[in-house]
Please model this.
Amino acid sequence: MPLAAAAATGPVVRIASGRLRGVTRHGLAIYKGIPFAQPPVGRLRWQPPQAVKAWSGIRAATHFGHDCMQKLFPGDAAPLRTHPSENCLYLNVWAPAHISHPLPVIFWIYGGGFVNGGTSPAPYSGAQFARDGLVFVSANYRVGRFGFFAFPALVKSGGLFGNYALMDQIAALKWVRKNIAAFGGNPGQVTIFGESAGGASVLDLLTSPLAKGLFVRAAVESGGGRDEVLPPARVRHAGPNGQPSAEADAVNFARLMGIHGSGARALAALRRLPAAAIVHGLNMASMFPQRKIYSGPVRDGKLLVHSSETVMRQGGEARVPLLIGANSADLGFFFARTLRQAFAPFGAHAAAARAAFDPHHAGNVRAIAQRIGMLETMVEPARFVARIYAAAGEPAYQYRFSYTAHALRARLHGAPHSSEIPYVFDTLRHSMWAAFGKGLTRQDEATARAMHAYWVNFAKTGDPNGHALPHWAKISSHGNQIMNFTLHGPKPETDPWRKQMDLVAAIQK
Model:
């Protein structure tokens, strides 16, 4: 990113590594493409993020840095607006242009299955959060094999290994603690929030000893929370359901690239491979077929000591206010082809499950299996995590996002995975979930304003409630309280899916 190319006008801030010039738009000060670590290329590929080198002069912070190297996913609800590159460890800040006192900070972690995603997509603009009195930060993190790789030579190095994506997130949060005051933010009032893989990242940060003290509130959107689906890979031993060890995945990939052995020479050869070879077609469409050459998150014993579920069951989670939930037509994994296969996992409760999931005896195997898979993957785990926090005495708020934009209701029967994001950000006009901004209704926009307001209030105080909003009750340790964002507005209610959720919870214990 150029130094001398900074615009002649625009706000200038000084941070630990040098001066930055951003832009002012509509009462906001915006800074993009700020490096928070050295480019993780060459010898720094598969290394923890390294401190940025200081610069002289004023660095332009007017455009996004590269999103991290990946194969783009066709039909992505939040398409990237940069050319992906290994040189990608940049973050962005939106803040009010005039600040009289330090403001709370909200820190966004994007989703994409840990293989796609970035900070440049239009729905992820932090403008509305800043207009509502927060300092907003979004940070890139390495994805795919750049973000998770446990080659034996790396494991033997004695340092942190494997979870480079999560290391990047922690490094960005440390940058916030060190530098955000220069932008008007309060480093002691940081809320982290993320969706899908970003939500799973929030859960990992809540349960990692290396993230302790970096935030004071957390929100999880469709991030799971149970071990049953996609638990972190073990380093040297195979996991459940035939999941290979993380080392085996890395060695298998090296062999595919024609690199044999597991020592320093093999690692050096892997670091010489072009970035496109490391990607090797990996994205959200191919991640499951590549499960023997790509591990995802690794239970390394240092950053991820155990799975988030195990840590929470042991009471080791960060004690902070929590907001968590999932969508009414969320992501789920299902493989049953018959009703018998769909209900077999419920064992002695199979008859009760049949009555709960197929009360009218319709016999629609796909719909039933999909519903069970969705509850197992996203919806019941959100309740599980919320109840854990409530039992620990922390305020926990659970939601269900059931709203679909008016223009899409004929095509959608429920709110799909990730469709809540432009409502939380209040960026509907930049989102495919609102038919790319066409045909937006007052109801669509009112739902976005309400949902966004809850998140803003939570980031400011740890309580989503505020003036003129329906009251959102905290969940109790055995409760089913939710705020349901329905077609008729936010509705506080007892979860109508509680019987189905109880059945799913019984087979996950």
Remarks:
- The chain is about 30% helix and 15% strand.
- Confidence is low (pLDDT under 50) at residues 1-7.
- The two ends are 50 Å apart (CA to CA).
- The longest helix spans residues 365-391.
